[in-house]
Write a structure and sequence with these properties.
The complex is a heterotrimer of chains A (242), B (244) and C (230).
Chain A lengths: L1 E10 L2 E11 L4 E5 L6 H8 L7 E6 L2 E2 L7 H6 L1 E4 L11 H11 L5 H14 L15 H13 L5 E5 L7 H16 L4 E4 L3 H7 L2 E6 L2 E7 H6 L4 H10 L3
Parallel strand pairs in A: 3-8, 3-9, 6-7, 7-8
Antiparallel strand pairs in A: 1-2, 1-4, 4-5, 9-10
Chain B lengths: L20 H35 L5 H13 L3 H15 L2 H9 L3 H28 L3 H8 L4 H16 L1 H14 L11 H12 L2 H30 L10
Helix pairs in contact in B: 1-2, 1-5, 1-8, 1-9, 2-5, 3-4, 3-5, 5-7, 5-8, 6-7, 8-10, 9-10
Chain C lengths: L7 H40 L4 H15 L3 H20 L9 H26 L4 H8 L4 H31 L11 H12 L2 H33 L1
Helix pairs in contact in C: 1-2, 1-4, 1-6, 1-7, 2-4, 3-4, 4-6, 5-6, 6-8, 7-8
Classes of the chains: A alpha/beta (242), B mainly alpha (244), C mainly alpha (230).
Function (chain C): Part of the ABC transporter complex GltIJKL involved in glutamate and aspartate uptake. Probably responsible for the translocation of the substrate across the membrane.
Keywords (chain C): Amino-acid transport, Cell membrane, Membrane, Transmembrane, Transmembrane helix, Transport
Subunit structure (chain C): The complex is composed of two ATP-binding proteins (GltL), two transmembrane proteins (GltJ and GltK) and a solute-binding protein (GltI).
């Protein structure tokens, strides 16, 4: 589904991604973790072309991002993305947030779009808030709407960029619950997160990044059971002491 | 375009008999600069009083200053110039009014007065913003070491406030220069008026206005450059500037 | 003090002042605000685009016009427009342009420089995640601008845009220099015809003041309301 092949990226002189290679197959849930500044958020944003990269290539469902003929908007419409800060559109009501992409990008008519939006709002348990503005919802609710907005586009894969790190602690679980359910239904997911409980529960593989490199790329059991690199061991010991 | 360009016109004598057209434009530029400088000095003085007054506690100063700002900001500059030039002499006692009307260079004084008082309201608003942007502790610290309120403004608040509003003040000064052109309506022979006169005498419309445009651009560049120089000269490490 | 004055002149000329003058001024203000905001937004988008040529052209437009006095720009267009029209239409001699059209084009082009600075700040104030989220949904540049960025930028900047409109309203008085029949032009015509300069100019000042003051007050209220919603 996603093939990341020897990708490198620089911000000026700063090398944010160094020769990253990995893949996500259909139905797989891959968690990407690592200390802040390790390049994990940058990596996930390169997958749908929100961040450019200078070397290597990425293929999503067979479409190469570096290929000049690739229609990026079209590719992105098939890749769902959930952001750290939700990024709902504050000037549009919840239903309008959910319908906009369906109507303007996929060309669905209003009725079809509304049906889909209502169904997905129900699924994330927020049908009662359909006619509110994003600013009237709590952080957890907003993030669930954001997940529903991405799902409205019938994505073939979902990308999550630290979806719970901007939330108050008591709201983290309501968002993780939605994500766990999604994973169990067989959605292909790539998730940047520090929530190791989530990783243990549903991940197939865990990728550990540090200083722009993929240091570890292992099955869940291998990663938590016997991490090979010292940096991953240190990271795990820090994050799992609580 | 069926227009006959003739740049040589700039060097021909103007029918006013004072020199070439280019020379009359140069005279106009001098008047522009003179009025702008005079109006700017007045605007800084008025603006300082207004800015301080609007920052003072108490029932009198602040509302009076607010009223001034509202009146001068909500009437077009052109109408204000008409009020000073045509209306004010009629409202004065007869002998004073006569004296005012017979003043030589009345357009010059009226333009400086009118544009200065108008720009003063805008400088005052900028200064108030600058004063408000300072930490409140500055005033307390100044009074705590025994300074009187006027002393605190003079030595502590204003030196800082003026520094942080230098960039917006630069653009207000540029506005003052541009606004001098409005005074052509009361007969001030500044740059735009000279270009207009050249157009009327010579029928070379576009040469006249192009020349004036170039002179305005040069004046702008010169002033911007000079203000940058002043900004860097008076800059104090650690004290930022207020963004417009 | 006012014994020599005849304020009846105002009452007698009121229909003319309002129907001709004030209508001209207010229509010119409204239409050139709309035109200026549209053109200004396009220029702001050019300055914020990733194309160097557009950035430079946009910046050049804004800096050039902001260096010139409006009076000079009014003269420029007043004399230039017939020649441009002649060039566009291929006529054999300069084509005369109506007073209103001439003023409207001048103010739209001039004020666009100022509106573009406002819209540029508005667009830049939108968090970068918003265009990213729009892109992630598959929107292209124009869709993202039209549905996501510009509505928010416009709403955030509405008070500033309206304040600029009040300035524009006052600036329209400068069409006096080419004798167009705006409110001040009409007042001045009556003033000179009847020899009542004092009465007419005081009246004009009061009218401009009331409209500008009231409009500023409305903008302040709007600003307070927007501040609460955020």
């Amino acid at each position: 589904m996603i093939e990341i092949d020897n990708v490198s990226k620089w911000y000026g002189d700063f090398n944010v991604l160094k020769h990253c290679t990995t893949s996500v197959t259909k139905g797989e849930v891959v968690v990407v973790c690592g200390p802040s500044g390790s390049g994990k958020s940058t990596l996930i944003k390169t997958v749908n072309g929100l961040e450019e990269f200078q070397e290597g290539d990425i293929r999503v469902d067979g479409t190469a991002l570096k290929d000049k003929s690739t229609n990026l908007p079209k590719l992105r419409s098939r890749v769902g993305m959930v952001f750290q800060h939700f990024e709902l559109f504050p000037h549009l009501k919840i239903t309008e947030n959910l319908c906009l992409g369906q109507m303007k990008v996929l060309g669905r008519d209003r009725e079809t779009a509304m049906k889909k939006a209502t169904a997905l709002l129900e699924r994330v348990g927020l049908e009662a808030h359909a006619h509110k503005f994003p600013g009237q919802l709590s952080g957890g609710q907003q993030q669930r709407v954001a997940i529903a907005r991405a799902l409205c586009m019938d994505p073939i894969v979902m990308l999550f960029d630290e979806p719970t790190s901007a939330l108050d602690p008591e709201m983290v679980n309501e968002v993780l619950d939605v994500m766990v359910e999604l994973a169990r239904e067989g959605m292909t997911m790539m998730v940047v997160t520090h929530e190791m409980g989530f990783a243990r529960k549903v991940a197939n593989r865990v990728i550990f990044m540090d200083r722009g490199e993929i240091v570890e790329d292992a099955t869940k059991d291998d990663f938590f059971g016997k991490p090979r690199s010292e940096r991953a061991q240190q990271f795990l010991s820090k994050i799992l002491t609580h | 375009m069926s227009y006959n360009w003739n740049w040589g016109i700039l060097l021909e004598q103007s029918p006013e008999g004072i020199g070439s057209y280019l020379y009359t434009l140069w005279l106009g530029l001098q008047w522009t600069m003179l009025v702008a400088a005079g109006a700017w000095i007045l605007a800084l003085a008025v603006g300082s009083v207004l800015g301080v007054a609007r920052s003072l506690p108490g029932r009198w100063f602040s509302p009076l200053a607010t009223a001034y700002v509202e009146i001068f900001r909500n009437i077009p500059l052109l109408v204000q110039l008409f009020l000073w030039y045509f209306v004010m002499p009629e409202l004065l006692p007869r002998s004073w009014g006569l004296w005012v009307k017979q003043l030589p260079n009345a357009p010059l004084y009226t333009a400086i007065l009118g544009i200065g008082l108008y720009m003063g309201s805008r400088v005052g608003e900028q200064l108030r913003a600058g004063i408000q942007a300072l930490p409140r502790g500055q005033m307390m610290a100044a009074t705590a070491i025994g300074l009187t309120v006027p002393q605190a403004f003079r030595f502590v608040i204003l030196p800082q406030a003026y520094r942080i509003i230098l960039p917006p003040l630069t653009s207000e000064f540029l506005n003052t220069i541009k606004n001098t052109s409005v005074a052509l309506t009361i007969g001030l022979l500044e740059l735009t008026a000279r270009a207009r006169a050249m157009q009327e005498y010579s029928f070379q419309v576009f040469e006249a206005f192009t020349a004036a445009t170039v002179l305005y651009l040069l004046l702008n560049i010169a002033v911007t450059f000079a203000m940058r120089l002043i900004e860097s000269r008076v800059a104090v490490p650690g004290l930022g500037v207020l963004k417009k | 003090m006012f014994s020599d004055f005849d304020f009846g002149v105002i009452q007698r000329s009121l229909p003319y002042l309002i129907k001709e003058g004030l209508t001209f001024t207010l229509t010119l203000t409204a239409l050139s605000t709309i035109g200026g905001v549209i053109l200004g937004t396009l220029i702001a988008m050019a300055r914020l685009s990733s194309y160097r040529v557009l950035q430079v052209a946009g910046a050049g437009y804004v800096n050039f016009l902001r260096s010139l006095p409006l009076v000079l720009v009014i003269f420029w267009f007043y004399f230039l427009m017939p020649y441009i029209l002649q060039w566009v239409t291929g006529a054999s001699s300069p084509v005369p342009v109506g007073a209103f059209a001439s003023a409207l084009i001048t103010f739209t082009i001039f004020e666009a420089a100022y509106f573009s600075e406002i819209m540029r700040a508005g667009i830049q104030s939108i968090p970068r995640g918003q265009p990213a989220a729009a892109a992630a949904l598959g929107m292209n540049y124009w869709q993202s601008m039209w549905y996501i960025i510009l509505p928010q930028a416009f709403r955030n900047m509405l008070p500033v845009i309206l304040t600029q409109t009040i300035i524009l309203f006052q600036d329209t008085s400068l069409v006096y220099v080419v004798s167009l029949p705006d409110f001040l032009g009409a007042a001045s015509k009556v003033a000179q015809r009847d020899g009542r300069l004092v009465e007419m100019y005081i009246f004009a000042a009061i009218v401009y003041f009331i409209i500008s003051f009231f409009a500023s007050w409305l903008v302040k209220r709007l600003q307070a309301r927007i501040a609460i919603i955020r």
